[in-house]
Amino acid sequence: MHSGLWLVCLLVCLSIPFASSAVRASEKQLAKGSRPRIGLALGGGGTRGVAHVGVLQVLEKEGIPIDYISGTSMGAIVGGLYAAGLSPAGIDTLFRNRSMIRSYDTVPIPLRLALVPVFFLPHMFGHHPYDGLYKGNKFAHYIDSAVDESRRNIENLKIPFAAIATDLLAGKPEAITTGDLGRALQASSAIPQLRRPVPLQGKLYVDGGVLMNLPVEQCRQMGADIVIGVNVDERLETVPAERFRKIGSVAMRCLNMHLAEIDEPQVSQADILIHPQVNGIRILSRRIEDMDAALIEGQKAADAALPAIRQEIERKSSEMSAGNQSSETR
User: Catalytic pick from 73, 103, 189, 317?
Assistant: First the structure.
């Protein structure tokens, strides 16, 4: 949509001596503006994606600049709102007051499922809407209303941004980098069967997580020298057979296995991977406790990754500096 506390503690301890030299050098590079361009690739995962907010909080606090953002599904929602100028605290508020969730599934899913027979009526009269329980237009309007009017087109965002969706007609992932932000996020998060496909720019889109759940590759293509990937999949662990007697448990396990499989190539391409421990958080959970847990795990995982992030900035800055000096001597 997962490391232990001992690993977090270990990395924090290891970061202490590093901070005295390499961190100061890295901050010096950041102050000068002579630094690599940093991209953030935010993966899909529903409510688990609240962890992205925790990651953003830590990166902001530590002064790690973000030059590009690519996101899929919930990663696109959080990333798009941040690129439009909302603070991590502001995005967190939209989750906690449940206004965003209510705009996403306007009628509770159990009730919507009970009304499925009603959806066949239009077909009886010759009208054939796209397959899915929700249109999602209210969600697009909600997103646009949440951002400043001047930031409602992707081209006008404060940070270059790409929403990843799956082109249902061509059967491939695509980065949406122009047009209305709300519609792009609607397309990127259109979970098949739950939400109807979204017609946009002459194409028909569903959730980007079908084929590209962690868009590291797209972030690199935007121009990032360093890509920080934030993976909010559940960690696959061996579980007892009894776990799968619950209704829906097999489908959820299969979904988690699929996401882990398609994310693996992208994980290997990221310069830094942040993987919060989000096991047990349901994709469409409305529980504040789950949001709290995801936020905290995002903060923990980002804190643990800070030494590696600073080291990579320092390494890449040195490479760029050496390359510039070589060019000047030729």
Answer: 73
Which two three-digit tokens encode residue 154? Answer: 């992707």
Mean pLDDT, each 10-residue run in order, the chain (330 residues):
33 32 41 79 96 98 97 98 98 93 71 49 61 85 96 97 97 97 97 92 95 97 98 89 85 87 93 96 91 97 98 93 66
Question: Does residue 92 carry a catalytic annotation?
Answer: no
CA distances from 172 to 14, 198, 229, 260 (A): 42, 15, 21, 18
Q: Which of 207, 225, 263, 303 is catalytic?
A: 207
Residue 48 contacts by C-beta under 8 Å, 6 or more apart in sequence? 1, 74, 232, 233, 234, 276, 278, 281, 283, 294
- Strand ranges, E, within the chain: 38-42, 68-72, 161-167, 172-176, 198-200, 203-207, 226-230, 272-274
207 labelled catalytic: yes
Contact 36, 313 (CB under 8 A): yes
Cα dihedral angle (252, 257, 262, 264), rounded to 10 degrees? 130
Residue at token pair 């209305």: 180
How many angstroms separate the CA atoms of 188 and 45, rounded? 12
Which sign, positive or negative, has the C-alpha torsion 302, 174, 87, 140? negative
Q: Name the token pair of 167.
A: 């082109």
